[in-house]
Amino acid sequence: MVPVGCLPLVITLLGFGNNQCIASVNHLATALNQRLIVTSELLNNTLPGLRLLLLDIYTPYFDIITRPAIYGFSESRRACCGTGVYEASIICNLNSVETCSNASKYVFWDATHPSQDASKIIAINLFEQGKSLIP
């Protein structure tokens, strides 16, 4: 699970004016991730022929959000597309009035999803994690 407590929507709803990640929500995400690891190991050991593979999406995502400049981003708290308190829009696309002028500088495309550039960095990280595990 991703660091849900760092999503712009969650910060807006639960941050009470604070612009920081919500640690308690992130703690729930990491606890779930730990349970998934234990459960997948149990299933892999119990069911012959099954091979579940879990990759860590939390760490690279959190790193991009908390250290955006290292990855070339200048905005990690607001979304590129959306307006209003919840930074939401019915339709977010490059032609929408609510869309920022340079999406490549934003970690988040909308209030809950990473931008294309952030997604690419996360995907490369996941590939690097998993390639040694492929027989």
TrEMBL record:
Q: Name one Pfam family in it.
A: Lipase_GDSL
InterPro entries registered for this protein in UniProt: GDSL, GDSL_lipolytic_enzyme, SGNH_hydro_sf
Q: Where is the signal peptide?
A: 1-23
The answer on whether this UniProt entry bears the keyword Signal reads yes
Answer whether the UniProt record assigns the keyword Signal to this protein. yes
Write the record's keywords in alphabetical order, separated by commas: Signal
Q: Which family does it belong to?
A: Belongs to the 'GDSL' lipolytic enzyme family.
> What name has this protein been given in UniProt?
GDSL esterase/lipase
